[in-house]
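Fill in residues.
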């Protein structure tokens, strides 16, 4: 539990569902509530006082569900199902599909680009955002069976999409590097910048908020890489194979900051 507690403004605004609360404040408050019993009690009192309709609805739902939950006795799973459920969940299906899709897409786009070309590649220019969009789509309402459960958890939204993108690419890129070493296809070249910038966004998000960090990183990419490359029609150094060590260093720095400041999202003062 943090020594700092949520302000009355945040607790009351969260209980009422005020629209003027920014996303970073909501994420920080929800993360803080996970480990602070005092603030949870204050929130419960605020809901009762500020949103009696919500409190009444919650009581009605629990009164209806209580007898059904007590009476429901799940059937014992079969042995093979029990073993499978110990390693997989329904929510893993989109994750596995996204890993396979990103790997296949990387290989196809790298082959389609053609070897030895020095002209600017649109794939490389928009590489940092393409996997993020794919991950967001794979966990959308229509594809993710656990969407509603996930959407109600603390720090859902952009922060969770970036974390899932990093998890997917952390699995895909080593496999692509090994495959590229064996086949000569450098498919990891356009995925490594995405992983490095995703880690950088998460690292900055612990200081200025994830939304502001994402805007800052996107603006930096557009100013430093996108605009000069489109102006000269030549691939920038950081987008070539020779620039992979640069992205590796940026990735290491970003991961180091995220690990060192892993509790930053539970500090309310960092998001005011």
């Amino acid at each position: 539990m943090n020594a700092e507690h949520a302000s009355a403004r945040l607790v009351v605004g969260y209980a009422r569902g005020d629209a003027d609360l920014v996303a970073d404040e909501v994420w920080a408050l929800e993360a803080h509530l996970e480990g602070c019993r005092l603030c949870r009690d204050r929130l419960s009192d605020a809901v009762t006082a500020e949103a009696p309709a919500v409190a009444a609805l919650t009581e009605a739902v629990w009164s209806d569900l209580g007898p059904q939950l007590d009476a429901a006795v799940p059937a014992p799973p079969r042995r093979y199902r029990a073993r499978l459920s110990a390693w997989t969940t329904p929510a893993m299906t989109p994750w596995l599909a996204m890993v396979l899709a990103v790997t296949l897409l990387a290989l196809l786009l790298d082959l389609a680009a053609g070897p030895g070309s020095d002209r600017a590649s649109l794939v490389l220019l928009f590489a940092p955002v393409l996997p993020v969009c794919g991950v967001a789509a794979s966990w959308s309402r229509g594809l993710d069976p656990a969407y509603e459960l996930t959407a109600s958890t603390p720090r859902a939204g952009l922060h969770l999409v970036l974390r899932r993108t990093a998890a997917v690419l952390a699995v895909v890129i080593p496999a692509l590097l090994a495959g590229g070493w064996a086949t000569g296809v450098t498919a990891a070249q356009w995925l490594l910048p995405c992983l490095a910038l995703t880690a950088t966004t998460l690292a900055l998000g612990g200081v200025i908020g994830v939304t502001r960090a994402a805007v800052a990183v996107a603006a930096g990419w557009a100013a430093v890489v996108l605009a000069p490359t489109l102006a000269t029609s030549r691939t920038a150094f950081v987008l070539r194979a020779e620039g992979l060590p640069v992205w590796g260093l940026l990735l290491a720095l970003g991961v180091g900051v995220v690990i060192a400041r892993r509790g930053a999202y539970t500090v309310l003062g960092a998001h005011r």
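The chain has a mean pLDDT of 76.
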